[in-house]
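Pasting as-is:
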Amino acid sequence: MADILNVEGLETQFRTREGIVHAVNGVSFNLKEGETLGIVGESGCGKSVSVMSMLRLIPCPPGEIVAGKAIFQGNDLLKMTDDEIRKVRGSQIGMVFQDPMTFFNPVLTIGQQVSEPLEVHTGMNKKMAYERAAKVLEMVGIPRAADRLDDYPHQFSGGMRQRVMIAMALISNPQLLIADEPTTALDVTIQAQIVELVQRLRQELGMAIIWITHDLGIIAGLAKRVAVMYGGCIVEEAEVKELYVNPMHPYTRGLLGSLPRMDETEHRRLVSIDGMPPILMEKPRSCPFLSRCTYAVDRCKMENPGLRDLTPDHKVACWVDPNTGREH
């Protein structure tokens, strides 16, 4: 399958009173047509900033994309004019945000907001756009969708608002859907429903998905590949089963060790990762995980390892093999 998206060397900075924050530091990944890629990591690691930069949604200033490419269907999103990128967002690339209540306009009806991309991007008239909006809302599981077009966001529950946001992202049949922690504010039952919904829609519509989360449990049942981020860098990338069975970065091992497992016959204590995430006021010259790593060697202090291939489907940014404790 051909690549629908290829991100290379993406770097994003934010200017603050304290100095420049190096939020994203050389992120590279690719996504194939119809594939689901999970991007995981703790808060502040650069997950959301990476995709927001790619879509040119970070505020400039204080944010600035200082390097990189984001090739989507042969065109670099980072070099597009403002008008060109607006035509891509909402039509070819759909976005689902974390908290729909802060995303929706509280004084506009759901029908107005869901149908707007069709009117803007395709020139469809209001009547036809509303009919299409009702069909898509039904597709994502909104009961009596046609009767709810004139309702306002506050009249929907949290789970229903998230479904409406997914409908809004899908209204123009995008080739790529980006979901930025869309289940974080929902209870476990609703989380499972949203994940099941997205899986079904991917199969029906054939779109590619980037799912951003800190929850490795969700990614296990959703994605084909997963990229683990730390300190503004991707530190490991592999197919989901391979990553869970054979994690090769100490940070990935720490994340997986903190999860309860249902497939273990013996009880074990959950693992915590000592220390704090890096303060990215300087671009990492050493390994960003250095201060929290129990495998660190002298080379880790001198040079930041880039992603390199362990196998054709498994990449890691680490100088040490955690299975042996020796340098690669």
